[in-house]
Write a structure and sequence with these properties.
The protein is of the alpha+beta class. It has one domain: Aspartate Aminotransferase, domain 1, CATH 3.90.1150.10. The chain is 42% helix and 21% strand. It has helices spanning 2-8, 28-37, 61-75, and strands spanning 11-14, 19-23, 43-44, 53-57. The protein has a four-stranded antiparallel sheet with strand order 1-2-4-3, with helices on one face. The protein is globular, with a radius of gyration of 11 Å.
Length: 76
């Protein structure tokens, strides 16, 4: 996932768990709504004092590919 985010140019925070936080160039709540329409669920982080950040649970390859495809779509 981090290699794909590097290709897209998205900054991220890589922890030791199965979560990845990334800063988007759009509002996290807008990204949440757009990704949900694509069938992808993420966690907006504004409520945790991290505006424009989202949290992604690292999952199976199919889910990560769906996320990457949808993220590219909503950012263009």
């Amino acid at each position: 996932m981090t290699k794909e985010l590097d290709k897209i140019g998205i900054n991220y925070v890589n922890g030791e768990g199965n979560f990845l936080m990334m800063k988007l160039p759009i509002s996290d709540s807008l990204a949440y709504r757009k990704l949900m329409r694509e069938g992808v669920m993420i966690r907006p982080m504004t409520g945790f004092r991290c505006p424009n950040f989202i949290r992604l649970t690292i999952s199976g390859m199919d889910a990560m590919e769906a996320f990457t495809t949808s993220l590219k779509k909503i950012l263009t």
